[in-house]
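Structure tokens please, single chain.
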Amino acid sequence: MGKRIIQQARGKGSLTYRVRRKAYRFRVSYPSLSGCGKIIKLINSPAHSTPLAKIKIGNEIFYNVAVNGVYEGQIIEIGENATIKEGNIIPLEKLPIGTEICNIETIVGNGGKLVRSSGTSAKIVKRTSAGVIVLLPSKKEKLFSFKARATVGVVAGSNRVEKPILKAGKKYHIMKARNKFWPRTSAVKVNVVDHPFGSGRGKRIKSKIAKKGAPPGRKVGLLRPRRAGRRKR
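Here you go.
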């Protein structure tokens, strides 16, 4: 039996996924103003895998992902005239090839949507007449608008995944927050009454290929061959 994906679980609001509203009180975005802002505070947000920088520019306050090297009290430059320095927010057309960036806008003005996880960064690889091509952490290249903004630097918190999980309870709570089934048990190791592949008498596992008449949600993973049997000459 399948499980709800995390978006479905959040939307339904069942006991399977209980989200804390307070954890999502900080929203990462870019300001509408250009000029110089100041990092007021570095914040530990439970809903994000990286610390957030609370920045004030004029009378506007916004939150951005913190990159390696930024500190409280640092002046952040925003706009086309900004210098290329960690933490500054600059349009892609003003950044040289090879610059490491993060929190990239997919649509001009949407406040940054890509490359926001801890320890990640993208790299500008080339410019074309259509826009700027960026190499994402997935090793795929994507075309962005010249006016799309990005933050210079590598997202902070790269050591988060390097810390070992010493207790099973910690792993349990991590997987529960992500709505993942854990611990997983091999199907052939359970009792025959609990699973079609169960029992210790023989380990001949049945086919896991989706049937021809299976609904679209089940046709994933291993798909059936177009034909079976020996080909007749």
